[in-house]
Amino acid sequence: MDRKGIIFVVSAPSGAGKTSLCREVAKLVPNLQYSISYTTRSPRPGETHGKDYFFVDEATFRNMIDKNDFIEWAEVHGNLYGTSRELLMDWVNRGIDVVLDIDSQGAMTIKKKYNDGVYVYILPPSFEVLRQRLVDRKSDSADEISRRLQKAREEIWNYRQYYYLIVNSEFHKALKELEAVMIAERIKMKQMNLSWIEETFIKHLSKEI
Ligand code: 5GP
């Protein structure tokens, strides 16, 4: 059925497992695209330009802000992150659902513009688990970890603005829940092109009678 793509916005404090969940769900659910953001942060080991992020320098990013290229952008942990308006709208207009793995500042900017988006918040089972995950990730310095934990406390304040809450204590359970949200949202009546039902069933019914 032809319809616009649904925008799924997923936020969580850093270390809650959000990126892995979003990437996995995009592999599981057909016709779902993971949105690749622009960032001024340096790539972590194993990250690739154009797959994990578009890694750009600050001048390039600021130039894109001036040209209104971002549908939303935010400063997170001292780096700039943004979602390309053109990429996102191209998928949505082609009827492809998109999952945005972005922080709550960006999520709230999108929410003001697109009330039809689906907002999902992911939490770790406890603050201690969050700290441990950031330490185990071994990709950030001690300073960076304490900055991320401080940001996590602020970030969690926004959870009430979201429509779904998933606690990631067990990855596969959380993944199933995220998949379930996406599948259920797709079959909501408001997402359907109802003219198909009218054509196939209702008109037919009146002819029979
Ligand atoms: P990381 O550096 O760990 O990949 O991401 C740091 C934070 O920035 C995460 O909360 C991530 O979701 C968020 N983020 C990634 N891309 C974007 C974006 O395009 N916009 C916004 N607002 N946040 C983003």
Automatic annotation (TrEMBL):
Residues 5-183 form the Guanylate kinase-like domain. It catalyses: GMP + ATP = GDP + ADP. It is an enzyme of class 2 (transferase). One of its GO terms (cellular component) is cytosol. Its main location: cytoplasm. Its EC number is 2.7.4.8. It comes from the Bacteria. One of its GO terms (molecular function) is GMP kinase activity. It is found in: Cytoplasm. Keywords: ATP-binding, Cytoplasm, Kinase, Nucleotide-binding, Transferase. SUPFAM superfamilies: P-loop containing nucleoside triphosphate hydrolases (SSF52540). ATP binds at residues 12-19. Belongs to the guanylate kinase family. Essential for recycling GMP and indirectly, cGMP. This is Guanylate kinase. It comes from Candidatus Manganitrophus noduliformans. The lineage of its organism: Bacteria, Pseudomonadati, Nitrospirota, Nitrospiria, Candidatus Troglogloeales.
